[in-house]
Amino acid sequence: MHVLLDLFFTFAYLALISVGNSRAVITEMERLVVTVHGWMSHQAFVEAYALGLLVPGPNMLNVVLIGNHVAGLAGAVASGLGMFGPTSCLLAGVAWFIKQPNPPAWIKQFHAALGPVTIGLMLATAWNLGKDIFLKDIFGTAVCFLALLLSVLGLLNTGWVIVLALLAGAIKGFFSN
């Protein structure tokens, strides 16, 4: 029961600090899951994150995979409720404020102020997840920058970028053997 509460509160905390985009907290999620709690390895975390991007639905379904890895179905439910429950309630409250005849000005100011924070957190996430590849393998670095370019320009959905990167890695592995 203790691990289920840990899963719920860990992901509720992450959901509440995810500013603008829940992907911005991937670095903190990796630190908590891998380093603090020791629930999985860095490589297993990266694989769960990549698989979560391929699944249709909310962009943070990897938390369900992490919860399942830690405590089975109950862990998947606890982590999913932690990630999506509290923020859903909070957003319902903000939506109520916005629908009022004169919504508070702080809502727009808060939203504008958090844009740069989100961008910084996303860059930290990219570096943290790819630190084992960057500058160690020129092919991997090239694939990472091509994936970044395709994503930033909006030429391909993130899921397709991951599939193409997977295929590029598989082809490289086939020819290097």
Explain this structure to me?
- The chain has helices spanning about 1-15, 25-35, 40-55, 60-100, 105-115, 115-130, 140-150, 160-175.
- Helices cover about 75% and strands about 0% of the residues.
- It is globular.
- It has eight helices and no strands.
- Helix 7 (about 140-150) packs antiparallel against helix 8 (about 160-175).
Tell the overall outline.
globular
Mean pLDDT: 85
The share of residues in helices is: over 70%
Radius of gyration: 18 Å
Which range does the strand content fall in? under 5%
**Terminal CA distance:** 47 Å
Low-confidence stretches: none
Number of DSSP helical runs: 8
Protein structure class:
mainly alpha
Number of strands: 0
SSE sequence, one letter per element: HHHHHHHH
For the largest beta-sheet, the strand count, sense and barrel status come to: none
